Amino acid sequence: MRVESLSIYPVKSLRGHQVPQAEVAPWGMEGDRRWGVVDATGEPVTARQVQALLGIQAEHCPADGGLRLTAPGLGTLEVSPPYDGPLVAVGFSRLPQARGCDSRVDAWLSEAAGERLRLVWQDDPTARSVSSRHGGRPGDVLNLADAGPILLTSNASLAQLQDWVGADGPEISMTRFRPNVVVDGTEPFAEDSWEEIQIGGVGLRRASLCDRCVMTTINPETLETGHEPVKTLARHRRWDGATWFGVRMVPVVTGAIDTDADVIVDSVTDDSTG
Prior knowledge:
The chain has 274 residues and is mostly beta strands. It is 11% helix and 37% strand.
């Protein structure tokens, strides 16, 4: 079993990109979801509310931790981390404040999205904890992802889902699920039971299964919406009032991971309901 691909999403709900190698920190992959979008009141805004966000490309710039944003018709905007930016009251769970960017950045983002929005930055990645409701333990920290530092999925599970959808249904790309790590060479949904795994020298612990929302019904290429894959997942993977695809993982040993690295399952659990 091996890593098939690695992806980071520098801005929550904006389009991300694949990387050949990633540095895993306690709060997630370096460059992943340290930036977020909020409205004028500081409430988080995602593609669930503004689908156009998925049409904006965000690329992590390792040299300074900044961003390169690209949108149709607007070209590219370079954004540096606003170390001295104003502290903005935000509505992210367990994170009351984030650093705001200058008005030039907010104006660009608002024009690209067609809504009045602000870009904010999580300056301290250790400030937000992983909720115990999602498998967090004391000391677990989190970027601006919904509930877990790293999301893992498998090609086998996607293939099974596509088979359930059928030839008459839409093609379901893995990008709809926005995983950080995609593994190859396992049985469908085997990852549900992985309690601890190793990827090279990095150790990950399962926090919870990942419940899926309507955001997965947006085609990330065309921005068109439909009923899949939630409709089919609800037939086959629904319990506790939610549908499930992928596993949220917490780093327990940090370091670098590479595409094609071996994945070793250290322990499994009989409980696959999160």
